[in-house]
Amino acid sequence: MPETGKSPTLAADLAAAAGINEQRLKVALLKTGALQNAILNSANFAIIATDESGIIQLFNIGAERMLGYLAAEVINKIRPSDIHDLQEVMARAETLSIELHTPIAPGFEALAFKASRGIEDIYELTYICKDGSRFPAIVSITALRDDYEDIIGYLLIGSDNSVRKRVEMELNAAMAAAEQANRAKTDFLSSMSHELRTPLNAVLGFAQLMETGTPQPTPSQQRNLDQILKAGWYLLELINEILDLALIESGRVTLSPEPVSLVEVMLECRAMIEPQAQKRNINMSFPRLEIPYSVEADRTRVKQVLINLLFNAIKYNRPGGAVAVECALNSPGSIRISIRDTGAGMSPDQLAQLFQPFNRLGKESGVEEGTGIGLVVTKRLVELMGGTIGVDSTVGIGSVFWVDMNLTTAPQLGEHDAVSGAVPPAPTFSGAAPSTLLYVEDNPANLELVEQLVARRPDLHLLSAADGNLGIEFARAYLPEVILMDINLPGISGIEAMKILHADPTTAHIPIIALSANAVPRDVERALEAGFFDYLTKPIKVGHFMEVLDVALKFSRNHPGRIPSKPSKGNA
After folding, report:
1. Between 20 and 30 A from 546 (CA), which of 30, 301, 327, 364?
2. What is the residue-wise DSSP string for 195-254?
3. CATH of region 172-249, choose from 1.10.357, 3.40.50, 1.10.287, 1.10.8
4. How far apart are CA 369 and CA 139, in angstroms?
5. How many whole angstroms from its chain centre is CA 552?
6. How far apart are CA 109 and CA 82, in angstroms?
7. At what angle do helices 107-116 and 86-100 cross, to 10 degrees?
């Protein structure tokens, strides 16, 4: 029999298959080599490899291009930390020491510390080139391990971070410039508010004196006074709205979130708004809240929001129309306050433009005054308090403005709090000697206005001082029951004068009321925190001015020698 063996055909097939596999292996190796070469020869990344002790063993073309060294100048000679900023390396070492609860490692060891524990690290460091120039880089470092998981070196891949850093610096500079511009705008508006309020104080103050003086104005004079007062209060409202909007847009509006009783706020808003409705023959209806709901908000700003919406509902209503306020639970933890009017209503196009500043939706030529700012301020305030505002409207039927607020639990009052919260009786005065009121003011018109107001009070005797230093001397010499203090005074400011008087045991007990044209909420809060008993803003509202004086006089009479411990919230 012939010898057994492979057939010629099978042998040929096996040889062919082996050749194909060998060819495929060569192609795969070539591709792998090409990939490795592409990575190592990349000009966009600095690729540096070290041995286990951190001495550089590989320095690719990208590293040469970025750092200016030839591979032969660094391989087997230096560590990567030798071409990094030493202070940054040490800072990195300290950070890692705190993070990993280990001793501080020097030099390259600090950079390789996390990588040696199997944690890939990416950090920002400054590379130092051969010519001494520097540039920021982002570097990742990874430990290289053999088949037995022993560290045989480290791989560092770095990229130039100069462009991103430059853009970041430009962005930071732009943000700083914008912040500075916002501060300048706020300071400018604060200053302008003061400058505008000062002459308004004289206009409105003396107009109120004439209106309530003796003999009473003639009908013709009364009509003229009505126009002066109407225009003056409107101008004051405009100043306040512009200032509010500027503060909100600059992020400087101050809010004091607290549980606010809706029942109390509704009663206060009703008392303030119903006279306006009666003048225009508008019927008002408010809800009867059986449950004492409280919302998490700033009390003053909630009133501002509701009064603005209520006043708009009256102002843009039809003659003999109606305004209805409704409250209903909107969702768990939220309540909706709706203000429904019977005005002309708004089209979809008008609704889309409703909350744009200075946009009055074509009513600029109407009889009603306005700026288009109020609703913008209202919307921003609602959102700052965590609420939402919206409107539904139908042309010819009317509009419904609604505000959703977050409910909260009302604070529980103890017995002492309930008693102390009672409304005090109106002050009564006997035929005793008049109390002394010291007014520190450098503006002659403001001084004359207060002189005429105090002249109507037989229980008061007025002293005046034209600057802070003289005011301090008068306070020490005459020990007045109450002091009125302007803020912007020649020499030392009213705040400095107040602090000096409070530091003096002989005058520390005297309640000092700020009377200033500075109406920015931030300025008011700072003054109250500094120690003023109360804060009145110009233009003076005569009725409120007298009320605050009475409160301070009552404190002074009932607590002789006692230092006022807690300033009131003031008014703006």
Report:
1. 301
2. HHHHHHHHHHHHHHHHHHSSSPPPHHHHHHHHHHHHHHHHHHHHHHHHHHHHHHHTT---
3. 1.10.287
4. 63
5. 33
6. 12
7. 40
**Segments in 254-333 forming alpha helices (H):** 262-279, 299-315
Write out pLDDT tens, residues 96-131: 777 767 776 666 776 666 666 666 678 888 999 999
Contacts of 459 (CB under 8 A, 6+ apart): 429, 434, 435, 553
Q: Residue 470, by phi and psi: left (phi above 0), alpha (psi -120 to 50) or beta?
A: alpha
Least Cα distance to 496 among 521, 531, 461 occurs for: 531
The answer to whether 56 and 79 have CB atoms below 8 angstroms apart is yes
Least confident of 346-355, 413-422, 435-444: 413-422
pLDDT tens for each residue of 496-512: 999 999 999 999 999 99
* Nearest Cα to Cα of residue 523 among 239, 258, 297, 254: 254
Q: Which CATH architecture has domain 46-160?
A: 2-Layer Sandwich (3.30)
The DSSP code sequence of 56-100 is EEEE-HHHHHHH---HHHHTTT--GGGGB-HHHHHHHHHHHHHHH
Q: Which amino acid is at 356?
A: Q
- Measured CA to CA in angstroms, residue 77 lies from 48, 57, 80, 134, 242 at distances of 13, 9, 10, 21, 68
pLDDT band at 212 (very low <50, low <70, confident <90, very high): confident
Amino acid letter, residue 560: P
**Do strands 398-408 and 294-297 pair parallel, antiparallel, or not at all (unpaired)?**
antiparallel
Q: Which residues contact 206 (CB under 8 A, 6 or more apart)?
A: 449, 452
Cβ-count burial of 418 within 10 angstroms (0-12 exposed, 13-18 middle, 19+ buried)? exposed
Looking at 3.40.50.1000, 3.40.50.2300, 3.30.70.270, 2.60.40.10, the CATH number of the domain 433-558 comes to 3.40.50.2300
Q: What average pLDDT does range 509-531 have in this prediction?
A: 87
Distance CA 525, CA 515 (A): 14
Secondary structure of residue 5 in the 3-state scheme: coil
The residue type of 367 is V
Q: For residues 419 and 413, what is the distance between their CA atoms, to the nearest angstrom?
A: 10
Rounded CA-CA distance 410/423 in Å is: 20
- Do 334 and 407 form a contact (C-beta atoms < 8 A)? yes
Round to whole Å and give the CA distance between 166 and 548: 57
Q: Do domains 172-249 and 258-363+370-410 have the same CATH topology?
A: no
In sequence order, the 6+-apart residues with CB closer than 8 A to the CB of 319 are 280, 281
Positive or negative: CA dihedral 311, 314, 315, 316:
positive
What confidence score (pLDDT) does residue 60 get?
Answer: 92
Strands 56-59 and 512-516: unpaired
CATH number of the domain located at residue range(s) 258-363+370-410 in this protein: 3.30.565.10
